[in-house]
Amino acid sequence: MNIKLKISGALTLAAAVIFAASCGSSNANESNANADENGQPVTVATAPAVVRQIPTYLEATGSLTSDAESNVAPTIGGKIVEVNFDVGSFVQRGDPLVRLDARDAQIRLEQAQAQVEQQRKAVASAQAAVDQAIANLRQTQVRLGVKDGENFDIKDFSQVITVSAQLELAEKELRRFERLLESGDVSRSAYDQKKSQRDALLGQLAEARSNAAVAIKAINTAEAGVATAKTQVANARAAVATAETQVDQARKAVSDNTIYSPLSGYVSERNADVGEYISPNQPNAKLATIVRTAVLRLQIDIPEQSIGKIAIGQGVSAQVSAYPDRKFAGTIVRILPTLNPQSRTLKVEAEIENVNGLLKPGQFATVRITQSKPSPAVMVPATAVKADGNRNLIFVVKDGIASERVVQTGLLEDDYIEIKQGVQENEQVVVNNVENVSDGVIVVQSN
Q1: 386 has which bridge partners?
Q2: Which of 68, 87, 199, 302 could be cross-linked to 292 through a Cys-Cys bond (beta carbons 3.0 to 4.6 Å apart)?
Q3: How far apart, in whole angstroms, are the C-alpha atoms of residue 148 and residue 170?
Q4: Mean pLDDT over residues 34-39, rounded?
Q5: Cβ burial 66-93 (10 Å sphere, 16+ → b, else e)
C-alpha cells in the first residue's frame, strides 16, 4: 500500500514537472515570436502617414511616332558618284546626301552662260544704234527749229512763211498795177515787171514747200530710226532674259545632281550605292528615309467615357519600359475630331521633347494626363512599402508592435507614394529595415 502511494506520488510529481516544462516552452515560443531571429527586438525608423493634395491623372496608353518623316527621291536621272550617309547617321537639313554625275549639266550651263554674254553684247550694240539715231534726230530738229512733241507742218516752215508773205505783197502790188494799167497811169512794161516778180515768188514758194517736205521726211526718218533702234534694244534684252532663263534652268540641272536632306533627323533607311543609275521614273526610286526625332508625337488612345477630361494644353507624363525610372513630359497639342468606331477610343497627340534621343519612334508608353483639380491622398515614404509577390505590404507600429497591412498603392510623388487603401492618416509606419520586420514583431523606434 505504501509502495502504491509512493508510485502515485511520483507520477503526480512527474506530471507536474512536465506541465511546468510545457508552460515554460509555450512562454518561450511566444517571446521568440515577438523578436527577431536572434531573439532581439528590431530597430526601425518610423514616419507618420500624411494627407497631401496631389494632382489627379487620367491614365491611358499610347505609342511614339516621329514628328516628321521624309522619303528622299531624285528629281532627275543619273549615275551615283558619291553617297554621304548611312543607316542610323544623323543629318542636318541641307546636308548633301547623294551626288550624281553632273558633267553634262555643267557643259549645258557653260553654253547657256556664253549665250547670255553674246546677247548682252547685242544689247550694247543696239543701244549704241539708239543713241546715234537720237543724235541724228536732234540735229534735224535743231536745224528746223522743232522741239520734241511738236507737230511740224509745211506752212510752218520758215522759208515757206517768208516767201508766202512776199508773194502776198506781190499779189497786191500786181492787182494795183492792173487797175493802173487799165486807167493808163502805168505802162505795160511796169505791169509786166510786177507780174514777173509775182511769178518768181510763186516758184520760190514751191521750192520752199519742197524743202519743207524734205525736212519733214528727215524728221520722220530720224524718228523711225530711233523707234527701230529701240525695238532692236528691246528684242536684244528679251533675248538676254531668255538666255538668263536658260542659265537658271542649267544651274538647276547642275544643282539637281546633288540631293540634299530635306530635314534634320536620323536615317532609318538607305537605298543608294555608288555606281548605281537612278531615275525618278523608276518604281520605288526612294534613296533614303529620314525621321525627325528631336520632338516626338505621342499618340494616346482615350476611352470614350473620358474624352470630356481632355483638352489641348494639358500636360502629360509618359513612361516606357526601356527607362522605367524616368518620366518624359509633354503637352497635348492635337485632338482628332472623331472616335475609332471599333475601339470606341479618341486619339489625341502630345508632343514630347526627346532629350538626348532616348526615345524611339514605335515605343509603347503608359501615359498620365494631368487633370486641373488636385485631390487629397494618404501618402507615406516610398521606403515603407515592401513587395511580397503580388502584394504590397506596410508595417504599422502601435505600442511597440509591428502590424502587417496589405495596401493598394497609387501615385509616386518625389519620395512619397500614395496609399489608396490600408493606412490611415497619422499612423506610424516603418520606413527602414523593412525587410527584417514581420507581423507582430517587437520593434524599437530609433526616431
Answers
A1: 393
A2: 68
A3: 36
A4: 52
A5: bbbebebebebebebeebebeeeeebee
Structural domain boundaries in the chain: 36-54+376-445, 57-66+290-374, 72-100+257-278, 106-256
Query: pLDDT, tens digit, for every residue of 286-308?
Result: 899 999 998 999 999 999 999 99
Fold of 57-66+290-374: Elongation Factor Tu (Ef-tu); domain 3 (2.40.30)
Strands 386-388 and 375-381: unpaired
Cell (9 digits) for 294: 528631336
* Domain 106-256 fold: Helix Hairpins (1.10.287)
Beta-ladder partners of 270? 288
- Cell triple for 195: 507780174
Query: What is the rounded distance in angstroms from the CA atom of residue 22 to the CA atom of residue 262?
Result: 88
Q: Does domain 72-100+257-278 have CATH number 3.30.470.10?
A: no
Residues 6+ apart with CB under 8 A from 189: none
Q: Whose CA is closest to 276, among 103, 92, 74?
A: 74
72-100+257-278 has the same fold as 57-66+290-374: no
C-alpha grid cell, residue 2? 505504501
| Distance (Å, whole) CA 407 – CA 388 | 11
Report the alpha-carbon distance of residue 13 to residue 20 in Å, rounded. 10
Residue 232: what residue type?
Answer: Q
Within 8 A by CB and 6+ apart from 183, the residues are none
Q: What is the pLDDT of residues 243-300, one digit of tens each?
A: 888 888 888 888 888 999 999 999 999 988 999 898 888 877 889 999 999 899 999 9
